[in-house]
Amino acid sequence: MREAYHDQLGELAEQLADMCGMVSDAMERATKALLDTDLALAEQVISDDSKVDDARASVEENAYALLALQAPVATDLRTVLAVIHAAESVERMGDLALHVAKAARRRHPNPVLPDQVRPDFASMGRIAVELAREAREVIRTQDVDKARSLEQADDEMDDLHRHLFSVIMDKEWPHGVASAVDITLLGRFYERFADHAVSVAKRTVFVVTGKMPGYSEDEDI
Q1: Residue-wise burial string across 70-85, b where 16 or more C-beta atoms lie within 10 A, e elsewhere
Q2: What CATH number does the domain located at 2-209 have?
Q3: Where are the domains of the chain?
Q4: Is the pTM of this model over 0.90?
């Protein structure tokens, strides 16, 4: 019985890791759709978002079943609770990739991004995808040092996000208000995606150590 129970805990963590893989792929495609004005790819991200929602529902259903039937304690209880909270963060990551794809679709056939900021968004997309994939590996390995290392990439994302503001606030900005609004929103989507990935990694640190490192309660999209 105990072996089957621990197998269930392992399957729960693997479901969460799979979710991270799903949202990393979604953000990779959404970024490509944004940069390449690729409507078909944007539509794929939009239509696939329901799969992330379904995955979260399955994770939560299995987690609550374990709580009800096994009454876990100590590390096992931390694992179940961490997965429930992390699944919410990962679903929000999927929503943020969805927002990027919708922006690409909304402006099609015109590009959303002026050439001036395309390199910034290419970098933000790369970092976002890497963070989601690193979070997936942290869940699978429970590597506390790797979990803590995600914050360095998140700092790089924050620097790029701040740089975007300096670009669009420049008095020489030639692309108008609508473009500035698009860039502001898109920058926020990428910045929040990264924050959620770091939050997921911190949940793993909580499972292993029993302590939540520097966790922020601001989880809004």
Answers
A1: bebeeebebbbbbbbb
A2: 1.20.58.220
A3: 2-209
A4: yes
